[in-house]
Amino acid sequence: MAALYALVDCNNFYASCERVFQPALRGKPVVVLSNNDGCVIARSNEAKALGVEMGAPWHLHKRLFETQGIIVRSSNYSLYGDMSARVMNTLRHFTPNIEIYSIDEAFLSFAGFETSLVAHAAALRSTVMQWTGIPVSVGIAPTKLLAKVANRFAKKDAASNGVMILATQAEQEAALGRMALTDLWGVASRLAARLHALGIASPLDLKRADPDYIRQHFSVVMQRMVLELRGISCMPLEEIVPDRKNIVASRSFGRPVQTRQEMEEAVSTYAARAAEKMRRQNLATASLMVFVETNGFRPQDAQYQASKLVHLPVATADTSKLIAAAMRATSIIWRGGYRYKKAGVMLLDLISSGRVQGGLFDAPDDARSKARMKVLDTLNGRYGRDTLTFAATGRARAWKLRRDLLSPRYTTDWNELLSVR
Amino acid sequence: MSVFDLLTRQAFGCASLRSAPCGSAYLRVVLARTSIAIPLMAVKASCGFPSPADDYLERPLDFNELIIENAAATFAVRVEGESMIGVGIFPGDIAVVNRARNPVDGCIVLALVDGEFTIKRYRKRGARLWLEAGNPAFADIEITEEQNFEVWGVISRCVRLL
Fold this sequence. Notes:
The structure holds 2 protein chains of 2 kinds.
Chain A (H helix, E strand, L loop, with lengths): L4 E6 L2 H9 L8 E4 L6 E4 L1 H5 L8 H11 L2 E4 L2 H15 L6 E5 L2 E5 L7 H16 L3 E6 L2 H13 L6 E3 L3 H8 L12 H9 L5 H6 L2 H7 L2 H10 L17 E11 L2 H21 L2 E12 L10 E12 L2 H15 L6 E9 L2 E2 L14 H17 L4 E3 L27 E3 L1
Parallel strand pairs in A: 2-4, 7-8
Antiparallel strand pairs in A: 1-6, 1-7, 2-3, 5-6, 9-12, 10-11, 10-12, 10-13
Helix pairs in contact in A: 4-5, 10-11, 12-13
Chain B lengths: L2 H10 L8 E2 L2 E5 L33 H5 L6 E6 L14 E5 L9 E6 L2 E10 L2 E5 L8 E2 L6 E11 L3
Antiparallel strand pairs in B: 1-2, 3-4, 4-9, 5-6, 5-9, 6-7, 7-8
């Protein structure tokens, strides 16, 4: 038998995290809102059953949610991030080979456990549940794509007890026969329409299509998909996350930003945050881009968006130099009279900070700059974000994210622990 | 001199951050609530004369080892109320919860009774199950079939800042 992959997926992850510490939410419809309390980004099963759609704008559905008894939470990424790390660390007890695919999904190699798959998967599920309180589903198959298919049925079929194994061709075909093309991983409706035009109307049709023909009409990615559907593994586990090519820090504002000072504060804050992320990976950059945009969903407002890329003479990881560059870019693209919705800073062409070359007139970051950044990162790491900040990033930050329905950060802040009588 | 002052001096070449210029922006300092004064050991190696302690170097004590048995399953909760003062768990303490431990008769648990969290001693004799308070002013809680009961985790440590 070929080696098997397991896809472990947390059930309704954000809602489940909230429920671990708020048992009153169990069995009730729960939705979690996007940054800024914009729209629904996660739903419990009960909320799905009530017909709440992904992406439903909160301000339009507020009343309806209240009458339906739907409990609403702002997204609490401090909590979700910590709970995710706990789940992933628990999974490492069950295999040394793991690819963390997203905040709530991981691919595991189950090679070596072929004779005890059901027991191994069941033990994994119950251990994750006991240790972290998060329910997960496990899909097992010879390829990652089929593991994703298996996971879908582990979630859907109540009889599966959260574990579905599609080890044989017959099992795989039976499962694929119950799916639409758009249910497949990576097939959006436009791609499905193109496949339809070629007479490929279902996942089974796609599996039986000629891989070379698919490659000619689509891409090597689609060809791999056909092979993976046939049980031929083409996507190995990516256990090492490749170094990132660029870093973005960007948020929507809590309310429209209209003054230049507020915009400069926001851009400085994002530059500082991006720089911090970059230093954590020991990288440096000489290219920085600032972008600003108004709210495209408000046609009654005047619209404007712009971005500006600036280059520094020498790559740096020093927040003060990056803020200065970001301010140069902002001054070029700033236009008054608009209600800005969003801004961001992107650091591009990242290189290892140890390999920065000086220019004729410009030296790389000196020891003093590096020490300064170390103080900054150490203090902010130890005493909490924004312990030490640049004045340019502002004091009041009235433009900051709106999170009115935020639950406590139970696992990451001593001041927000669960209180128990 | 605190670590903070020392780092400041190293980084900015001045004793106070208020006078520290830094590129185009100025650093604003929000002093931390506390400062930690840890004696810094001289780490310069003297060539030719290795320290006689070199062969005996060990890691310093790590309090995480003492308190955390299983990081993925360990949570902290704040104690309120006086129902467990008899066993030394006081209001304001931080109770360390290990969800990986299974409850056995006599251990202290964070339990959920009809949706409410409570810290009590777990008691199980035969078919009888009850939660015992550590304070005579509080009655025991008998767990019956009708009740919605679960052990959220086992309290493995209790931390008190004096």
